[in-house]
From TrEMBL:
<feature type="binding site">
    <location>
        <position position="149"/>
    </location>
    <ligand>
        <name>Zn(2+)</name>
    </ligand>
</feature>
<keyword id="KW-0684">Rhamnose metabolism</keyword>
<dbReference type="GO" id="GO:0005829">
    <property type="term" value="C:cytosol"/>
</dbReference>
<comment type="similarity">
    <text>Belongs to the aldolase class II family. RhaD subfamily.</text>
</comment>
<feature type="domain" description="Class II aldolase/adducin N-terminal">
    <location>
        <begin position="21"/>
        <end position="247"/>
    </location>
</feature>
<dbReference type="InterPro" id="IPR001303">
    <property type="entry name" value="Aldolase_II/adducin_N"/>
</dbReference>
<keyword id="KW-0862">Zinc</keyword>
<dbReference type="GO" id="GO:0046872">
    <property type="term" value="F:metal ion binding"/>
</dbReference>
<dbReference type="InterPro" id="IPR036409">
    <property type="entry name" value="Aldolase_II/adducin_N_sf"/>
</dbReference>
<feature type="binding site">
    <location>
        <position position="151"/>
    </location>
    <ligand>
        <name>Zn(2+)</name>
    </ligand>
</feature>
<dbReference type="GO" id="GO:0019323">
    <property type="term" value="P:pentose catabolic process"/>
</dbReference>
<dbReference type="InterPro" id="IPR013447">
    <property type="entry name" value="Rhamnulose-1-P_Aldolase"/>
</dbReference>
<dbReference type="InterPro" id="IPR050197">
    <property type="entry name" value="Aldolase_class_II_sugar_metab"/>
</dbReference>
<protein>
    <recommendedName>
        <fullName>Rhamnulose-1-phosphate aldolase</fullName>
        <ecNumber>4.1.2.19</ecNumber>
    </recommendedName>
</protein>
<dbReference type="GO" id="GO:0019301">
    <property type="term" value="P:rhamnose catabolic process"/>
</dbReference>
<feature type="active site">
    <location>
        <position position="126"/>
    </location>
</feature>
<keyword id="KW-0963">Cytoplasm</keyword>
Length: 281
């Protein structure tokens, strides 16, 4: 990968920036897993200004894109996001064409493109859902940084065959793998089917983000959040693994499973608090 230097300003704009590398690697990995076919899936990553300024000229935006939804809570914040209509399999080959670094304007009504999104490309069509989710997660977790949306295959399949009550859905996932309750004691949330790319689906997802790090979109995919790329991907990966086990069991008779008492013992051993209303102990 090449590095370009903007000599007149003394900035180094490099696709070898750690945050660009992380995005390229994680999108490629999700594509390899079969979670992000065609242009499915999108990721946004909240960045520190100091970190961005090491690699990108933040004084001269390339262009401005108006938002259809104001995000005053994110005014002045920096993000790297995947582009609309871009294929995850291509990100690692040409990051600058498939991703962009943005800064939210001071009034929160537009974003300034600082790097990437070449040839007039625009941010993901799910930007509303991402920004709204960032706003809610930052209220409860100041270390929050990542919103990751992917079409995790087995999670989608599970939404066809399982009751979509989120307490029941969570309990089933907890019962599939011993690690699940430890990884997501806050459970998963589920919203109704809503047209993707809309402000409505963004608002409904954000409501759930007040209490959860995982939101499932029935017949569509999953939204996961976290403070690092590794922890966020690991969270989604664990939910997907539990869904795989559920789907493998299918309609076969279950002769033994993790009991409510065992789940409670597990929570005590790992010092986590299970979401209320699920375990009967």
């Amino acid at each position: 990968m090449s590095t370009s230097v903007i000599e007149s300003k003394g900035y180094i704009a490099s696709i070898e920036a750690p945050f660009i590398q992380e995005m390229a690697e994680i999108t490629h990995h999700m594509w390899e897993l079969g979670w992000d076919e065609l242009n499915g899936g999108n990721v946004s990553y909240l960045l520190d200004e100091e970190e961005v300024a090491k690699y990108i000229n933040i004084l001269e935006p390339l262009r401005v894109i108006n938002l259809t939804f104001p995000v005053t809570e994110l005014a002045g914040k920096y993000f790297i996001v995947t582009g609309s209509g871009k294929y995850f399999r291509n990100v690692i080959k040409d990051p600058e064409a498939n991703m962009g670094v943005l800064r939210v304007s001071k009034n929160g009504e537009s974003v300034e493109v600082l790097w990437g999104l070449r040839n007039g490309a625009v941010p993901t069509s799910e930007l509303a859902s991402h920004f709204m989710s960032h706003i809610e997660r930052l209220k409860v977790d100041p270390t929050h940084r990542i919103v990751l949306h992917t079409h995790a295959t087995n999670v989608i399949a599970m939404t066809f065959t399982h009751d979509l009550d989120e307490l029941k859905f969570t309990k089933t996932l907890w019962e599939m793998c011993t690690e699940c309750l430890v990884v997501f004691p806050d459970g998963v949330s589920v919203i109704p089917w809503i047209v993707p790319g809309s402000s409505e689906i963004g608002r409904e997802t954000a409501k759930k983000m007040k209490d959860h790090r995982v939101v499932i979109w029935p017949q569509h995919g999953i939204f996961g959040t976290g403070s690092t790329m590794d922890s966020t991907f690991g969270l989604v990966e664990t939910v997907e693994k539990a869904a795989i086990v559920y789907n493998l069991i299918g309609g076969r008779e279950i002769k033994q499973k993790i009991t409510d008492q065992q789940l409670a013992d597990l929570a005590k051993a790992f010092n986590v608090t299970p979401k209320a209303g699920i375990l009967n102990v």
